[in-house]
Amino acid sequence: MGGVKYIGSFLWCAIFLYYVSINTISVLGISAEQDLSLTPRELQALTQFREIMKPRLEKEHDYMKTDIYLIRWLRAKNLNIRQAENMLMENLKWRKQYNLDGIHNEDWSDMFLDYPYTNDTYDLAGRPIGAFSLSDWDFRKAIAAGKQVRLFRYMIKLLDEATNGVLRLQREGKNVTQWKVLMNMEGFNLVQHGCGSCLPGFSYFVQAYENYYPGFADAIVAINSPAAFQVVLNLVRPVFTAQTRESLKVFGTNRAQWMAYLDKEISRDQRYPEYGGTRKLKH
């Protein structure tokens, strides 16, 4: 897919969490106000970038013309206007080539049965949360069944769905600019999740997130991460950007530790029991 031939999943977000966050688990994400604040250099670059992109975005979605959307591309390229322009144009090309606007109208019922997730909760700042349990996800099974490409597209749908959730809240007048990912890594193993056939998908997924959804993650949080996780992380760490690393928070199996963090970020009635909350699953 435009340099992302195979695209990994929210599952694979978990893989790059561990090494960057193992010593920084107390760091919290930035507020919407901080995300919206511009330095003088950012304001100057944004003013120029807006004028350059205005005619090229005339027929695109309205949200793509907003300052908070445009600044993401500039920040991803350290305010290099030419590079940000190329990056955004590649995004538009990719979205059209792979019909991202129609991805949510496709029938994903078969995938949801095998790879369930929730997206009906919010953190204390009102950011939407996408959550899943690794024990429910068997990436190797999808490969063996010939569903690799379909699973990868399903994962992109999750990224786009989370982003659309942010955009919906903005249309409602909410001061929300980012989303969260919450993952229970209990059950991670190298056979189902770290196999040789699985790793290329992860690499391509990281590229997809960073190239097409830059800066949209407030935090990507993993709990109950086992030691085997590190084996996979060592293979993929070169692909991460500094911006992505700042979003990552990884916890081991010390429940008290990850509960303390989550209680500061997400109320218990917005967390399902496996994340130390009281919310009940809808059947």
Automatic annotation (TrEMBL):
Ranges that cross the membrane: 6-31
Start and end residues of each CRAL-TRIO domain: 122-283
Assigned keywords, A-Z: Membrane, Transmembrane, Transmembrane helix
SMART domains: SEC14
Record keyword rRNA-binding present: no
Pfam family membership, one: CRAL_TRIO
Keyword Membrane applies: yes
GO cellular component: cytoplasm
CDD domains: SEC14
Protein name as it appears in the record: SEC14-like protein 2
